[in-house]
Amino acid sequence: MNVIPSFNLTEQYKLISEEISEVSLEILTSGQYIGGDTVKQFEQQFAGYIGSDHCVACNSGTDALFLALRSLGIGAGDEVITTPFTFVSTAEVICALGAVPVFVDIEPQTFNLDLSQVEAALTKRTKAIIPVHLFGNPVNMTPLMTLAQAHRLWVIEDCAQATGAKWDGQPVGSIGHLGCFSFYPTKNLGACGDGGAITTNDVALADRLRMLRDHGQRQRYVYEEIGVNSRLDALQAGILQVKLRYLETWNQQRQTIAHQYQQWLSPLPGIILPQEIEGGESVWNQYTVRVLTPEGAENQRDRVKQQLQKHGVGSTIYYPIPLHLQPIYATLGYQAGQLPIAEQVAQEVLSLPMFPELTIEQQQQVVYALKESMVKT
């Protein structure tokens, strides 16, 4: 039986191994491993791809979010509105600066922030909103930016899973005041290690971000602020330059796979398929369905996952416990039932295999296995 993983990096590497080896050898031979022309070139290329004036590379998507908040002066006592259904980094960095995450429920169709509930969550202490373009599906940024402008709030786009996604024809990361990206290997544009970047059209913010990522110095050994060591190394920048050339093709392949899933799975009872909203163009970092559980029954999602494994199909659960119910946020006072959509979705979501090199035969096996798994549950 052929085993189909949730994600496969080796197939992608086979396609570009010679280019990766060539650029890696050039950088290793150069002796310039931190900063330098390779990093600057990648920053310029990535800014051009996103459609932003500036790109500041750093060493992870988590640091991108942290540095973005730091650059805006957000700190103790400030409130930042975000989603509870995301990776912990989104809220983790808020707390790391002494600020308070304010969680707002999500839309069941897109898994993204429910914008209709954001305004009610605003207080005098609200300084920023972090929308997360989850699983590659863009947030409806038009009303969000209108709301932010009306209340003089910063918008930091968490684009970790959405490099190349677009809202109303505009790439995510170029719409808010700052865009934060992760180049973790499983992302649409992934490094061979950790990496991240912040995009912005604000020259002053870009300048401050460059200072903060390098120990708070603009001039060597002259420290203006307490900074951090968050530099993208040249080797990762070189690899990302190679991969950036293929990103549009890979994203199109993901879209083709997603649309095929939609077609083949649409009649399947007990499953709710992910949806793109009008005006949005997803890049499908994940293809995540909801497996419904009849009232009073045991969790069907967990059973389906086990059955898929028996059929040789990998699947992943993101995220089984929403952030507002995590032990580290118990002091914030959220109770079970307070954000009902996020809590329900967390019990239902299941991500099927999704990577550009997924073949039509493999996808057919996934669909067959899912249908068989639903029958057996």
TrEMBL record:
| GO MF annotation list | pyridoxal phosphate binding; transaminase activity
Key word Lipid biosynthesis present: no
The keyword Transferase appears for this protein: yes
For the modification N6-(pyridoxal phosphate)lysine, the affected residues are: 187
Q: Which residues form a coiled coil?
A: none
Regarding protein family, the annotation reads:
Belongs to the DegT/DnrJ/EryC1 family.
GO BP terms, alphabetized: polysaccharide biosynthetic process
Q: Which organism does this record belong to?
A: Thermocoleostomius sinensis A174
The protein's matches in PANTHER family, at most eight in alphabetical order, are given as: 3-OXO-GLUCOSE-6-PHOSPHATE:GLUTAMATE AMINOTRANSFERASE, TRANSAMINASE
- Protein keywords: Aminotransferase, Pyridoxal phosphate, Transferase
The protein in question is named DegT/DnrJ/EryC1/StrS family aminotransferase
Active site, renumbered = 187
Query: Where are the membrane-spanning stretches?
Result: none
> Which Gene3D superfamilies does the UniProt entry name for this protein?
Aspartate Aminotransferase, domain 1 (3.90.1150.10), Type I PLP-dependent aspartate aminotransferase-like (Major domain) (3.40.640.10)
